[in-house]
Amino acid sequence: MHLVQLARRAELALRLTETWVRRPPVPTRLVLDVTRRCNLRCAACRTWEAPVAHELSVAEIAAILDQLPRLCWLDVTGGEPFLRPDAGALFDAIADRCRALRVLHFPTNGWFEERVVAACASVRARRPDLDLIVTVSVDGPEDLHDRMRGRVGAYRRAIATLRRLRALPGVQVYVGTTITADNQDQLPALAQALARELPELHPREHHLNWLQVSAHFFRNEGAVAPDPPADLVRQHITRRGLPRGLVDLMELVFLINRDFYGRGEPSGVPCQALRSAAFISPEGQLYPCHIYDRPLGDLRRVPFAELWRSEPVLKARDDIDRLACGGCFTPCEAYPALAGAPLRALRQTAARALRLAREALEGPSPSPAASCPADPTDASAPRLSRPPSAAPELA
Ligand code: SF4
Ligand code: SF4
């Protein structure tokens, strides 16, 4: 890795670990939901049903981002972000305004190939220093994907966008699969389909998410969490092979802990929502994250720093520490959570990796979490019972 790149990674790591010593004066990581609109009709997501009104304009978003001078990691999500006619201008504004940014990630359903590719090329040209990461959603082989996404042609368009993006220098491209009851048994068939369509795609470039329930983001209260095969995560870990870099390593650490979370054990690391991370709705409401349905204030009216230290935000932060939010271990929130408690995360992951190795030889081991005290920040604490969930990578 080039020295400059190494220095940037080190800077990013420093920012993410800042919460070891203090709560930053404004967040360093943000999930920015830019639209509830979507051209697809996934069974597991009803964001598209929301009336479209009062979306933040590009100028309003830029004004909010200007208040976050230490922002180093931004996820832009939706809905389908590229349904916004001003999506190109929005990404350009992010690239130009967020000078401290190191990671810019967005998910897309891949329908709007030209718009996605043009936005990436423009961001790349403006900010060659950024890690630009795009996740294109593919939930199954063609028929299944189109059925799950509610529109014929969704699969072919997603694959076409993946091909174009993978040919674009400087863009890290991933396939994202949301596991639901409809596709949890179809991952081998999906892997075969992807191998045919994108022979160069390595399993390391394939991310798994889990169906999640969120009133304010997915508007899918009542959705039923899947009950995937017990060895699904372990098979994915095996397919991915040994990590090749920091991101691979983080993903491996996440997957090992996700496997145990799926068995009912705690995440073992404190969530960083409202500590270093936050979520902003398309209308400018601040939330802790994409799951916890707790609006905290209107960023059109209140400056970010003022809201960040307000009583409702600090109270919500305390409630998150007590897992009043229900708790979760989403891929999106897990990375900052793991980085925020690295020693605990490494200790726990090493112990769990050993358990996995032992189980491979001897069969499943009993969960040590069953009778532990209820300290929510303790690795051995029982978690509350929110269904297993995924990153806000729906698109
Ligand atoms: S634990 Fe999950 S639901 Fe709770 S605040 Fe963190 S990300 Fe949100
Ligand atoms: S999951 Fe994504 S593609 Fe599907 S309806 Fe929701 S926002 Fe649209």
Summarize the helices and strands and which ones pair or pack:
Blueprint lengths: L2 H14 L12 E5 L24 H8 L7 E5 L9 H11 L5 E6 L4 H14 L4 E7 L4 H8 L4 H13 L4 E9 L7 H11 L8 E5 L21 H9 L5 H17 L14 E4 L4 E3 L9 E2 L5 H5 L2 H11 L9 H10 L1 H21 L33
Helix pairs in contact: 2-3, 3-4, 4-6, 8-9, 9-12, 9-13
**Strand order in space, largest sheet:** 6-5-4-3-2-1-7-8-9
Radius of gyration: 20 Å
- The N- to C-terminal Cα distance equals 32 Å
N to C succession of SSEs:
HEHEHEHEHHEHEHHEEEHHHH
Biggest β-sheet, characterized? 9 strands, mixed
Count of alpha/pi helices: 13
Helix- and strand-based class? alpha/beta
Percent helix range: 25-40%
Mean pLDDT: 88
Which residues form runs of ≥5 with pLDDT under 50? 369-394
Hetero ligands:
iron/sulfur cluster
Number of strands: 9
